[in-house]
Each structure stands twice: as structure tokens, then as C-alpha cells.
Description:
The protein has five helices and five strands. Helix content is about 45%, strand content about 20%.
Amino acid sequence: MFERIMIATDGSKHSERAAAVGIELARLSGGSVTIVYVADTGRLSHLPEDMALASIRDLLIKEGENATAFIGEMAERSGVASTKMVVEGNPGEELVRVAEEVGVNAIVIGSCGRSGLEKFLLGSVAEKVVRTSTVPVITVPGEKVCD
């Protein structure tokens, strides 16, 4: 049932915990994982022109490469085949788009427990993915509320 699982990562400990769940599901089903990091470069458009936007973008991309490589190593140690992707855009929208494009059977994403005003103001990537995905979404809670 879950032969092709997408693991969403933002490089946090919470997403590593979610990745462990996704990798184990793939291992048990004999499947593979697609590891996706979305560089939220849309937020850069609000910064002043004189800032080094290209450098910030490059840092976000590098962070994504490091995060996906780390989870790729986790998958390799478990004997699970993996593909890594770093894309740019709105995380909630891009994760759903990539899931459809790649043809995954499920999405595994961490949820760090934001609540109240913080959730209202910042939104929740996991919540958006759950609401808009056409495939099952497995949310893995963090051990504690996000910092």
C-alpha cells in the first residue's frame, strides 16, 4: 500500500523523527522514499532590494541539500532506496504538488504542535498538506511543542 512514500523535511529534529517513521513504513512495505525540502524563497520577496537575496537563497538551498542528505543516509542505513529533492516555493503548496508529480502513495510530515495565535499567524505546513493532499498524510507529532 505504501510503496512510494514522500518524507517532508525542514531540517529540524521534528522532521527527523517523522523521517524515521516514513523510512520504517517504507522498509516494512518494501518501498522507497522521496525526501523533499522546500526552500521558502517566497518570503525573500519582502526583503529590501539591497540585501544579498541571492546569498540568502543559496543558503536556503544548501540547508535543503544538507537536510535531505541526512535523511537519505538514515534511509540507506535502513536499506531503503531514496530520492532527494530540493524545491522552491510555498512549502504547503509545493509538498502537495511534488507528491502528485512524483506519484507517491503517502506523505509523512512532522507536526511540532504550534497552537493559538502562533498557528493563526504563521499557519501550519502540515495542516495545509493534510487539507489539500489527495493521498494519505501521516503526521508525526514532535516530542514537545516547537521552540
